């Protein structure tokens, strides 16, 4: 009886253990996994995020070789979030890798660069330059490329002397760079960059992009017999400075080009503005002027020279501000007259002021005081035609009528500031813009050499200067602008 009882107890204990074990196996224990999303859509579960990162890095040796990097990272459109699951259905790392390797670009460590646009003044008003975004492998690529681009606008030896604070002092005449800086704000952000994006690794290639706004080859042009740099630049809507930047092996605009020679005519589109401020001291010739005396006893239209003119000389100190090599402002600091100019005196046979100016083939009157500087010549800049010549000088210095005629406009606009238009009644008009004040009004008859206003910087002007332009036909509305420096002869 006792043995039977013992066997029954053992059997009951075994049955209880089996029931307990089976019940235990039916209870699921949660575990931590990582849910993988591609473009917001779940593509699987993995046990370890670090294992996927390591696997990608091991498999992508081609990317490492191409960019010369030590590590490859997850795609930017791949998200991995920690999750808890009771499921045993977990993907292997190679399975997830196969799902993403051909559809999601992997990334490498680099820098995202943003070059913010700046406002600039033009004849059309205030415009904003473009904002440029790009990627570089490391900061040294960007630094070298910016410096190479600066060399396109500033002589490399002068730039290095400025950086090293090693410029010679000005003893009598000469020049000295006072400041060089990039006007744009440049932000640099370290980030992981998709290998499908443009990533600059070569400073020379990045320099071309920063200068021309493209990686395409520049357009080529074969020089024709007798063509000058100025001719080619104008015909292709470039300024002379832009032509020289596009052709760095040509040292200056006075170089004579050979027939058949190949030059670049691609318009530059710099990603940033290099501002150079230079102090200059030089001797300048003071061109003699021409004055007239009238004698009613002489037949009308006859002239005779009473006194020959003699040029003078002045020592002038002034500051120049350039933006990407183009003068945008001059400011005269001092003028020391070494030898005064002697005006030429011509006696005319009438004192009546004719409304009709002398023809284009005769001598016209220089519109500013002397000495002066040519800040910006007539021609194309950035593909847009600059319809006049910007002549720099002293604030509130005299502005003269270039020929006899009638004032048809004397007013103010936002972009011209104070301006005057004269009809010379011989098919030609002249305009005078950015004046500090106007001394003639609409309807006035003016004489060649008469003071009509004062030099200033009103309207959309950068620095003190006169914007002087020559038109055949009424300016801006049906007329055609001409380069006054090449079309006219001045006294």
Instruction: Name the CATH superfamily classification of the largest domain.
Output: Glucose Permease (Domain IIA)
Structural class: alpha+beta
Computed over alpha carbons, the radius of gyration is 38 Å
Instruction: Estimate the strand proportion.
Output: 35-45%
Distance between the termini: 147 Å
Q: Enter the CATH topology name of the largest domain.
A: Glucose Permease (Domain IIA)
- Determine the fraction of residues in helical runs and give it as a percent range: 10-25%
> Which residues form runs of ≥5 with pLDDT under 50?
20-25
Number of helices: 10
- Overall number of strands: 33
The total number of structural domains is 4
Mean pLDDT comes to 90
Task: Characterise the protein shown here.
This protein is α+β, with helices and mostly antiparallel strands and 491 residues long. It has four domains: 31-105, no CATH class; 111-214, no CATH class; 220-268, Membrane-bound Lytic Murein Transglycosylase D, Chain A, CATH 3.10.350; 274-490, Distorted Sandwich (Glucose Permease (Domain IIA)), CATH 2.70.70.10. Helices cover 20% and strands 38% of the residues. Strands 20, 23, 25, 26, 27, 29, 31 and 32 form an eight-stranded antiparallel beta sheet that branches. Strands 9-4-7-10 form a four-stranded mixed beta sheet.
Brief synopsis:
This protein has 491 residues and is an alpha+beta fold.
Attribute tags:
single chain, 491 residues, alpha+beta, Membrane-bound Lytic Murein Transglycosylase D, Chain A, eight-stranded antiparallel sheet, four-stranded mixed sheet, 10 helices, 33 strands, 20% helix, elongated
């Amino acid at each position: 009886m006792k043995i039977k009882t013992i066997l029954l107890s053992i059997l009951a204990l075994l049955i209880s253990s089996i029931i307990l074990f089976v019940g235990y196996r039916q209870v699921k224990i949660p575990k931590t996994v990582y849910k993988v999303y591609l473009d917001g859509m779940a593509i699987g579960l993995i046990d370890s995020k670090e294992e996927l990162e390591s696997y990608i890095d091991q498999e992508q040796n081609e990317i490492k070789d191409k960019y010369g990097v030590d590590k490859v990272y997850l795609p930017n459109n791949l998200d991995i979030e920690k999750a808890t699951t009771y499921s045993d259905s977990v993907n292997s790392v190679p399975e997830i890798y196969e799902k993403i390797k051909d559809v999601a670009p992997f990334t490498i460590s680099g820098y995202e660069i943003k070059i913010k646009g700046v406002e600039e003044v033009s004849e059309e008003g205030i415009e904003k330059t473009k904002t440029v975004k790009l990627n570089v492998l490391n900061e040294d690529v960007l630094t070298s490329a910016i410096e190479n681009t600066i060399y396109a606008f500033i002589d490399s030896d002068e730039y290095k002397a400025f950086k090293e604070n090693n410029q010679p002092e000005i003893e009598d005449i000469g020049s000295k760079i006072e400041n060089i800086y990039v006007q744009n704000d440049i932000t640099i952000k370290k980030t992981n960059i998709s290998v499908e994006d443009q990533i600059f690794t070569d400073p020379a290639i990045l320099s071309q992009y920063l200068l021309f706004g493209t990686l395409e080859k520049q357009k080529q042009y074969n020089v024709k017999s007798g063509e000058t740099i100025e001719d080619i630049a104008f015909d292709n809507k470039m300024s002379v400075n832009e032509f020289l930047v596009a052709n760095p092996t040509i040292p200056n605009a006075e170089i004579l080009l050979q027939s058949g020679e190949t030059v670049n005519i691609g318009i530059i589109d710099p990603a940033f503005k290099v501002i150079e401020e230079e102090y200059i001291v030089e001797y300048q010739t003071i061109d003699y002027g021409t004055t007239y005396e009238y004698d009613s006893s002489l037949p009308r239209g006859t002239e005779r020279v009473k006194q020959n003119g003699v040029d003078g000389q002045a020592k002038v100190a002034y500051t120049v501000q350039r933006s990407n090599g183009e003068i945008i402002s001059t400011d005269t600091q001092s003028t020391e007259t070494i030898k005064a100019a002697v005006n030429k005196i011509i006696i005319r046979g009438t004192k009546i002021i004719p409304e009709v100016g002398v023809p284009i083939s005769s001598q016209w009157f220089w519109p500013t005081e002397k000495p002066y500087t040519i800040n910006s010549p007539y021609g194309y800049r950035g593909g847009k035609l600059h319809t006049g010549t910007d002549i720099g000088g002293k604030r509130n210095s005299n502005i003269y009528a270039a020929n006899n005629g009638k004032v048809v406009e004397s007013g103010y606009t936002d972009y011209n500031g104070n301006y005057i238009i004269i009809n010379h009644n011989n098919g030609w008009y002249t305009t005078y813009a950015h004046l500090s004040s106007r001394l003639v009004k609409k309807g006035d008859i003016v004489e060649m050499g008469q003071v009509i206003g004062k030099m200033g910087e009103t309207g959309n002007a950068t620095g003190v200067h006169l914007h002087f332009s020559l038109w055949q036909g009424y300016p801006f509305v049906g007329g055609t602008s001409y380069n006054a420096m090449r079309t006219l002869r001045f006294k």
